[in-house]
Specification:
Chain lengths: 187, 273
């Protein structure tokens, strides 16, 4: 897993230090993952103040959840994205309206792992796993991860609702299994 | 954060996978969350992590977090539990007494129009804080008992009566706020505050701390008023309150806000000193 120059001298993962109340680690965490959280918030929120509110809430969740991070299970960026996704999905459900924010590239087929701005081992592995999926399954999974509901995906792809759910579930399982092959850091 | 549990019957495994996949993509309702917990799989993050990895692979170039938003996040950052005693990273910001002055003006019972003018003068920068939901007292209110206990046991507990503004929701409202800085506990009591439809709006408490920048009051929680009778609400501020200077309740959108537009101030209470 790629190491960060800012933390090379520290024996502990960044999020572990955040959990311990290290204010410098908090600043580093914000600098490192602010863009990731912001991008996800823009994907799920309608813009303006909603995005800002969402970012604030995600980081509050992250400060509270940092102690749960286990580098033996997942990478740090993946964990941060997970915390963000959960908050953003909860916000969307509370609003009960579809996300109107910016979406990323729609199809995984367009993803070139080598061109990722931050070549995270799990991201690259996930991209390769996505590429190995059947086209319909890949499209459904990417759309689902971008915040579309199953019924919206069914409407957009023309697939039956049950097929959409099945593709999403099996696609996630495939990604999960692929990630299990990624070497993890040992605490 | 945990791995999946590989031991299950096929039907149970299938149902768990359905719920985990739904949680990772569209979220679960309360019944589904309970079902997942009953199946013993609510701590299985594997599908959530998989969906997050898909995000990492498909987001493309990441935008920079706007500087102002980054500063706001840092200003609101607090030490994560259980390290609450560790100082939160706070960027020193020049105090702006005019903001508190506007809240105090509301406490003095100015008309809504005058309050709006006062707020308009302090609209930038907006108030930013963290959202925290607090519980509303149930029908047989242990919260009321806890309030009485706090008043009796905390030597530093202060009780300050609410001052209603001209907002329609505050018409005829009485009550008070009880706060103990030593215990970091407090309660709001309302009689006659307009019940709210939580799908349309919710009440939110803000606490101004004398040692903090006035532009960033502490969020005291989002709450509902289910009836027009007496309602007692526990205050559970996200941040440590050193010396409360003003309590103010606003009406916000469902779920509360991190940036209050201060359009509807309902009641305020200013401890003496």
């Amino acid at each position: 897993m790629r190491s960060d120059p800012a933390t090379q001298d520290s024996p502990e993962p960044l999020l572990t230090r955040v959990a311990a109340g290290n204010s410098e680690a908090v600043r580093t965490c914000l600098a490192r993952y602010g863009g990731l959280v912001y991008a996800l918030a823009r994907r799920y929120e309608s813009g303006g103040g909603d995005v800002e509110d969402a970012v604030q809430e995600v980081f509050v969740d992250l400060w509270k959840s940092a102690a749960r991070f286990d580098p033996a299970i997942a990478g740090e960026a993946t964990f941060v994205a997970m915390i963000a996704r959960r908050r953003l999905i909860d916000r969307r459900r509370a609003r009960d309206r579809r996300p109107a924010g910016e979406r990323g590239p729609e199809l995984a087929a367009q993803v070139d792992p080598g061109a990722l701005p931050d070549v995270h081992a799990e991201a690259a592995q996930a991209a390769r796993a996505l590429d190995a999926l059947q086209p319909d399954q890949r499209r459904v999974l990417v759309l689902a991860c971008q915040g579309m509901s199953h019924s919206e995906i069914a409407g957009e792809t023309g697939l039956a609702l049950g097929t959409v759910k099945s593709h999403a579930r099996r696609g996630l399982a495939a990604i999960r299994d692929a990630l299990s092959d990624v070497p993890k850091e040992t605490p | 954060m945990s791995r999946r549990d590989p031991s299950s019957s096929p039907q149970r495994t299938e149902r768990i996978a359905e719920l985990l996949a739904d949680r990772a993509t569209v979220g679960l309702d309360e019944a589904e969350r309970a079902e997942l917990a009953a199946l013993g799989a609510d701590d299985d993050d594997s599908f959530d992590l998989a969906a997050s990895a898909v995000d990492l692979a498909t987001l493309g170039p990441l935008p920079a977090l706007p500087d102002e938003l980054a500063r706001s996040v840092l200003a609101r950052a607090t030490s994560p539990a259980p390290s609450r005693e560790v100082a939160a990273p706070v960027i020193p910001i020049r105090r702006t007494p005019r903001v508190t002055a506007a809240w105090v003006a509301a406490a003095a019972g100015l008309a809504a129009g005058a309050i709006a003018v006062a707020w308009a003068a302090t609209r930038e920068p907006e108030l930013r804080t963290v959202v925290r939901t607090v519980e509303v007292a149930p029908a047989v209110p242990p919260t009321a008992e806890a309030r009485a206990k706090l008043r009796a046991s905390a030597r530093d507990a202060v009780t300050v009566a609410w001052t209603a503004t001209a907002d329609p929701a505050a018409a005829g409202v009485t009550g008070d706020v009880v706060w103990s800085a030593a215990a970091q506990q407090g309660f709001m009591r309302f009689v006659g505050l307009a019940p709210n439809d939580r799908t349309a709006l919710q009440y939110q408490l803000w606490i101004f701390d004398k040692v903090r920048d006035d532009r960033y009051p502490i969020d005291g929680g989002v709450f509902d008023v289910p009836s027009s009778g007496e309602v007692v609400v526990r205050i559970d501020p996200k941040l440590h309150v050193s010396e409360a200077a003003l309590f103010a309740v606003t009406i916000e959108r469902p779920g509360g806000v991190v940036v209050s537009k201060r359009e509807r101030i309902v009641v305020t209470a200013a401890p003496k000193g």
